[in-house]
Amino acid sequence: MAADVLARHRAFYDAVESGDLDLMSSLWVDSPSALCVHPGAEAIEGTDAVLRSWALVMANVEYIQFFLTDVQVSWPLGSEADLALVTCTENILSGEGTESPEQFSGGKAICTSVLVRSGGVWRLWSRHASPVLDIDPEAPDEPGMTEQP
């Protein structure tokens, strides 16, 4: 059962990477309570609004690739229930925000996805991604910054 959940979870990233809105649409439950929180943004409710938000992301990002780590599946209501929770770290490579097409930028987010089994098929009901700040503890302080006693 975890394999089915993980396959649907991976299909989500495949949809984003390939800009496949039809695939993306097939992955979400059709519900006014569907919820998506993009990194740094407010919650979007309802399947139609969620899919519109992904259409905008896919239309405006020329290149994006996700390398997932720390992927875990949990069964909050037991393994026989129709609810699964997938958490992971998204290591993101993108061409956005760079000065030339040969350059890439990176980022990291922690993601929690809630999938429900609907009609025997696992579908996304909720997704929340939060950016992870890449702070180097060995980096020198910013000029003018001093430690307070």
Structure, explained:
- By secondary structure, the chain is α+β, with helices and mostly antiparallel strands.
- It has one domain (2-130): Roll (Nuclear Transport Factor 2, Chain: A).
- It is 26% helix and 36% strand.
- It has 3 helices and 6 strands.
- Strands 2-1-6-5-4-3 form a 6-stranded mixed beta sheet.
- Mean pLDDT is 89; it is low at 145-149.
Low-confidence stretches: 145-149
The major β-sheet equals:
6 strands, mixed
Choose one word for the global shape.
Answer: globular
Biggest sheet, spatial arrangement of strands: 2-1-6-5-4-3
Rg, nearest Å: 18 Å
Secondary-structure class? alpha+beta
The mean pLDDT is: 89
CATH architecture: Roll
The first-level CATH class name: Alpha Beta
Helical content class: 25-40%
- Classify the oligomer: single chain
Give the number of domains.
1
Please, how many helices? 3
End-to-end CA span: 54 Å
Tell me the CATH topology. Answer: Nuclear Transport Factor 2, Chain: A
Write the layout of secondary structure elements.
Elements: H1 2-18, H2 21-27, E1 35-37, E2 44-45, H3 47-60, E3 64-74, E4 83-94, E5 105-118, E6 121-131
Parallel strand pairs: 1-6
Antiparallel strand pairs: 1-2, 3-4, 4-5, 5-6
Helix pairs in contact: 1-2
